[in-house]
Amino acid sequence: MKKTSPAEDNRMDEFKILIVDDSEEYIELLNQFLIDYGYTVIPAQNGVEALERLKEGRVHLIIADAMMPKIDGFQLCRTVKDNPEYADIPFFIYTGDYIDAEDREFARSIGVDKYVVKSGGLDELIRSVNDVARNRYGYNRKETVWGDGTIDDSVFLQKHHDILTKKLEEKMHHLELYAETLNKKNIELKASEARYRSLFENANIGIVILDRETKHVLDANNQAVEMFKYSKEELLEKECLPIENDKQMTSQLLYTELYFNGEASIIDKDGNTVEVQINSVPIARAQDPRIIVYLRDLSEQSRIRQKLLQIENMTLMGRLAAGIAHEIRNPLAAVTVNLQYLQKKYSNNEDIINTVEMAMEGSKRVEQVVEKTLSLARATPPQSKAEDVHEIIDRVLWFMKMPLKQKNISVQKEFTRTLPAISVDEKQIQQVLLNILQNALDASHENGSIVMRTHLNEVKNVCIDVCDNGPGIPDDLQKHIFEPFNTTKKGGTGLGLAISKYIMDRHNADIEISSRPGEGTTIRLLFPAYQ
After folding, report:
1. Pairing with 508, which of 180, 258, 311, 386 sits 20 to 30 Å away (CA)?
2. Are 425 and 375 in contact (CB under 8 A)?
3. Strands of 410-414's sheet, edge to edge?
4. Residues near 9 by beta carbon (within 8 Å), at least 6 away in sequence
């Protein structure tokens, strides 16, 4: 590319800046902002497209995001600086990721002129752009070099690989923390299940001794008697167990050499079918024809399976939260920078400034919500202390003041003022109430009302009820209401109540739902009183 002299640059009709970012919103933001400073923006959404734009005409400055598909910012800079036609073009890295001294040194070594972080706003970027536009062509600038001028491809590739690896490790860090904690929880759950099993085998499950030669019942404990609804004497007269029409199951049960495990249907004295899990093992002594059969009602196992499914779903949510954090923060940063721009542009207009400040507060709130969601992905234990339930509710209602006002929804407080304190992590319980109150707001008609009620129930739990007068939830959907990604709202994520259930479980508290189509919905939170 032919270089221009300072005199020629002073006669330029326009100053062209190539913006390379995979976010259309961010390109549009920079375009609008730089136009006010008299610059012309050439957009490109990745490094490949940027190289095509360079072929189309003169560019005076390149600003590129660090992390992009196809060719990232580092690779693009290396390619540009390796090409004598483009090597004199100043190159800025403008990124939303955290950077350290090593990143800056590597960027400098490959020819990056400026490394700017998005979270700092646009001030530093604009100052740097203005400096280039004013000074870049006003003196003889030394050509950009690669560190000491001798860096080769292998050094570049190694350093580039190291930085990319580190960036990916940082993005996966939250997920790894969550996975590690989840693994510990799974181990604890398995240990807990083993303890329950031991307890069941010794007392609280059906235990039957069978003679596998005669198939007769030799003995049975009280739990087995209750399960079959036969008296012990009647049960001892039975030839084998009354398993429903499954001769193959009976044969496997009786003649296992080591251990048998299966599920079957047994028939009690009243003719009812009971689904059970059957485990059988031979008596340890050689030549002993007896086997021990353990019968366990599957209702308990079903409960454990549901809990495991909830954990698995929350793992997926954790992956989602960690994976989309970057995608959420980029547009959020764009919103924040726009608001900063409006603050400067309309600094003398009090009405606009007040509105912008309210929007800035909302933007900060979104950032806090993202952080809280990520804290769930990290499985952070609740930092519980004694809290007044009404103070928590009042803070949540303050956060929801604007959404409630926009829909003209009134909130009726029916508080029992003499409630004991509860031991909770205030921020996590605020998140639960925000999720529930937002659902109630979405379900309510304009000019409607929401009732928030506090009271003690019969077992002295502190209860918070959130009642709306919306359309209610069909019965067939209520049993899935706390499952992740299950939602009845158009455009909803189905994460709010799943996260709320997860938080309440970690507080040893409960969440219940009561709803009838056409009559509204009540969500109840139940907390043990603080001791």
Report:
1. 180
2. no
3. 410-414, 449-456, 461-468, 520-528, 510-516
4. 136, 137, 138
SS3 assignment, position 351: helix
The encoded tokens of residue 368 equal 């806090």
Cα–Cα distance measured from residue 444 to residue 408, given in angstroms and rounded to the nearest whole number: 10
DSSP code of 239? Answer: B
Cα separation of 359 and 364, whole Å?
9
> Tokens standing for 120?
């700092």
For the chain, 531 residues long, give each residue's pLDDT as a single digit of tens. Answer: 445 544 344 445 678 899 999 877 778 777 877 787 778 899 998 989 999 999 998 899 999 988 888 888 889 999 999 999 999 999 998 887 656 777 778 888 888 888 888 766 677 788 888 888 888 755 333 333 333 333 344 544 454 455 445 556 655 776 677 677 778 877 887 777 676 545 544 657 888 888 877 878 888 888 888 788 888 788 888 777 777 766 666 777 777 777 777 777 777 888 777 788 787 888 766 677 888 888 877 766 666 666 666 666 666 666 666 666 656 767 777 788 888 888 888 888 888 888 888 888 887 777 766 665 665 565 577 889 999 999 999 999 999 999 899 999 999 999 998 899 999 999 999 989 998 999 899 888 888 899 999 999 988 999 999 999 888 888 778 777 777 666 666 655 566 787 888 888 888 899 999 988 888 899 999 999 987
The residue among 130, 151, 172 that closes a domain is 151
Angstrom distance (rounded) from CA 238 to CA 227: 15
- The amino acid sitting at 118 is K
With the C-alpha atoms ordered 357, 363, 364, 365, is the resulting torsion angle positive or negative? Answer: positive
Q: Provide the CATH number for the domain around residue 502.
A: 3.30.565.10
Please check whether residue 524 lies inside any domain of the structure.
yes
Q: What are the beta bridge partners of residue 282?
A: 291
CA angle 364, 365, 367 (to 5 degrees): 65
Give the pTM: 0.39
| Residues 50 and 62: beta-carbon distance below 8 Å | yes
Q: Does residue 441 form part of some domain?
A: yes
Yes or no: say if 429 and 389 are a contact pair by the CB < 8 Å rule: no
C-alpha to C-alpha distances, 33 to 24, 54, 120, 317, 495, nearest whole angstrom: 14, 22, 15, 36, 36
Residue 474 — φ and ψ, nearest 5°?
Answer: -60, 150
Joined tokens for residue 357: 């400040």
Instruction: State the residue range of the domain holding 108.
Output: 6-151
Which ranges of 452-521 does DSSP label H, i.e. alpha helix? 475-478, 496-506
C-beta of residue 218 within 8 angstroms of C-beta of residue 232: no
Q: Which helix (H) or strand (E) holds 155?
A: helix 153-199
Q: Which domain CATH number covers 136?
A: 3.40.50.2300
Q: Which amino acid is located at 284 in the chain?
A: A
Report the amino acid identity of residue 89: I
Q: Please tell me the total count of domains within the chain.
A: 2
* Domain contains 181: no
Residue 292 lies in a domain: no
Question: Under a CB-based contact definition with an 8 Å cutoff, are residues 75 and 160 in contact?
Answer: yes
Tokens standing for 185?
A: 């929880």
Nearest to residue 89, comparing CAs of 1, 220, 169? 1
